[in-house]
């Protein structure tokens, strides 16, 4: 389990976290209960502008619906009407995105609810599994577990490549698009497998998780620094993302199954290098993309990467000062009275003013890690 701090946390850190959590519950969550909710479609809009108006909808993604299902499932018992909203999102996931003919779930529908991008991608299926595991843990309804099982079955039968890895994307009828495996969907699949194991014993899922991480070590870890690349080793134009190193580190370090694995040892080794090259020491800003050598490729600061670094720090030894510094940075640079800044550029100027429906998932998982740390 996640490590606790060695002594009681400083009152300043506890007070700062309470303030950030209140902002989440009183400002961010209500955005998705009110202006961010399309009542007719029973789906979240993809994004709100700085004035809390929905951006004109071009599409709705199954992944965004699943992330919001996780969000409201995690708030059951804390926020009024969270259970009703989770139930509506679960129904919408099935109604709008499930492919009755070929199985699995479409990537997106258009603004009128018609299938848009009908490909089947692992990222979407991983989030459906992740959300259903958390939701089932709260409600224990047989229908939710049956969708969880259907997601597991389709991932194993359709996406698996037989070597522990999984195709990133397939056509609607499961014909290969020859994308091969990619880091980000595989990370979220590992996260979804861990979520499943946290709510039930499942030896097949545990075996798949261990095989996945063994294959990641073999195919994605850069030998020199231990960092986990975005594409398999040997792919043209490869890079790594500090946010993903921190996200993987948290998953591995917090899991009794994965802690001590070779992949965990690699990410443990990569942590200092990633901090040194990918985190600005004065501001705590996390860069978006680095070359395998550690040179900056994209210095954009994204709120999700800030949240993942902060969450990872809660599992580092003697980290209280760093946790407090990064929580302060998140609070001052990314959160504001009307919501949050999605991105800042290299100079620190706000470069995206919209607020996507997918971001509260990162904040919710970060704050859950902080709550565990402060406990």
UniProtKB/TrEMBL annotation:
Name this polypeptide is given: Cellobiose 2-epimerase
Entry superkingdom: Bacteria
Record keywords: Isomerase
A molecular function GO annotation: cellobiose epimerase activity
Name of the top EC class for this enzyme: isomerase
InterPro entries: 6-hairpin_glycosidase_sf, 6hp_glycosidase-like_sf, AGE/CE
E.C. no: 5.1.3.11
């Amino acid at each position: 389990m996640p490590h606790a701090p060695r002594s009681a946390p400083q009152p300043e850190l506890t007070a700062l976290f309470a303030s950030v959590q209140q902002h989440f519950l009183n400002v961010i969550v209500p955005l998705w209960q009110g202006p961010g909710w399309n009542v007719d479609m029973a789906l979240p809009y993809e994004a709100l502008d700085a004035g809390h108006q929905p951006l004109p909808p071009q599409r709705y993604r199954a992944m965004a619906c699943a992330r919001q299902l996780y969000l409201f499932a995690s708030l059951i018992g804390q926020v009024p009407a969270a259970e009703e909203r989770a139930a509506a999102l679960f129904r919408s996931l099935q109604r709008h995105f499930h492919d009755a003919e070929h199985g699995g779930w479409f990537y997106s529908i258009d603004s009128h609810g018609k299938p848009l991008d009908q490909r089947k991608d692992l990222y979407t299926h991983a989030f459906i599994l992740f959300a259903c595991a958390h939701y089932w843990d709260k409600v224990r309804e047989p229908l939710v577990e049956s969708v969880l099982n259907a997601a597991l079955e389709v991932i194993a039968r359709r996406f698996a490549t037989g070597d522990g890895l999984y195709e990133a994307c397939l056509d609607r009828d499961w014909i290969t698009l020859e994308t091969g495996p990619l880091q980000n969907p595989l990370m979220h699949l590992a996260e979804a497998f861990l979520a499943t194991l946290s709510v039930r014993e499942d030896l097949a899922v545990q075996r798949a998780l261990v095989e996945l991480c063994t294959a990641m070590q073999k195919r994605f870890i850069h030998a020199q620094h231990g960092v986990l690349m975005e594409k398999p080793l040997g792919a043209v134009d490869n890079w790594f993302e500090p946010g993903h190193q921190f996200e993987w580190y948290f998953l591995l370090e917090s899991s009794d199954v994965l802690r001590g694995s070779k992949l965990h040892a690699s990410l443990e080794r990569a942590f200092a290098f990633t901090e040194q090259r990918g985190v600005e020491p004065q501001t705590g800003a996390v860069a978006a993309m680095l070359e395998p050598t550690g040179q900056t490729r994209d210095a954009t600061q994204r709120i999700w990467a800030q949240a993942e670094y902060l969450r990872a720090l809660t599992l580092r030894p003697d980290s209280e000062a760093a946790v407090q510094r990064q929580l302060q940075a998140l609070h001052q640079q990314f959160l504001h009275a009307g919501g949050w800044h999605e991105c800042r550029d290299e100079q620190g100027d706000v470069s995206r003013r919209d607020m996507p429906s997918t971001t509260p998932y990162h904040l919710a998982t970060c704050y859950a890690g902080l709550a565990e740390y402060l406990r």
